[in-house]
Amino acid sequence: MKILYYYYYLFYTKILPDDQPHSTVVFCLSLMESFIINGLLNIVSILLFCYNISKWPMIGILIAIIIANYQIYYKSKRMELIIDEKPKLFNSNVASVVFSLFFFLLSLLMIVTAPFYSKYLLERFCN
């Protein structure tokens, strides 16, 4: 998570400058995490219980993740330690960028494909 935080921070300071990069990183990282978690939880709940999770529990999970990341990174000032540390995956900038990009693409893939896959599972296994 340190790597993701650091490279999201670099993105919001170098490529897409923002007035509050730390706040933006906490929000965007939380949003990406919630896409993955909500997608996986929905698929698992359909497979185990034939229950499609509605939007309000998913929004609650997003809010809980935002609050947790705010406490972990922003309020505890851990963000400053991460920026000073400049973490890398296998001591490689390229591997770190690829990992961050993979995480971003995985989260976007979950938000695009999870609803269709959930609908398919409901029609196939829950009738």
Which descriptors would you attach to this protein?
mainly alpha; transmembrane helix; transmembrane; 83% helix; 127 residues
Explain what you see:
- The chain has helices at about 1-15, 20-50, 55-75, 80-85, 95-125.
- The chain is elongated.
- Helix 1 packs across helix 2 (about 20-50) and helix 2 (about 20-50) packs antiparallel against helix 3.
- It has one domain (about 1-125).
- It contains 5 helices and no strands.
- It is about 85% helix and about 0% strand.
- The protein is mostly helical.
- Keywords: Membrane, Transmembrane, Transmembrane helix.
What assembly state would you assign to the polypeptide chains in this entry?
A: single chain
Dominant shape: elongated
- Helical region count? 5
Low-confidence stretches: none
Helix content: over 70%
| Structural class estimated from helices and strands | mainly alpha
Number of domains: 1
Instruction: Report the strand count.
Output: 0
Please tell me how large the radius of gyration is: 17 Å
Q: Distance between termini?
A: 40 Å
Helix-strand pattern, N to C? Answer: HHHHH
Instruction: Give the amount of beta strand, in percent.
Output: under 5%
Query: Average pLDDT value?
Result: 88
> What's the main sheet like?
none
Layout of SSEs?
Elements (H helix, E strand, L loop, with lengths): L1 H14 L5 H29 L5 H21 L2 H8 L7 H33 L2
Helix pairs in contact: 1-2, 1-5, 2-3, 2-5
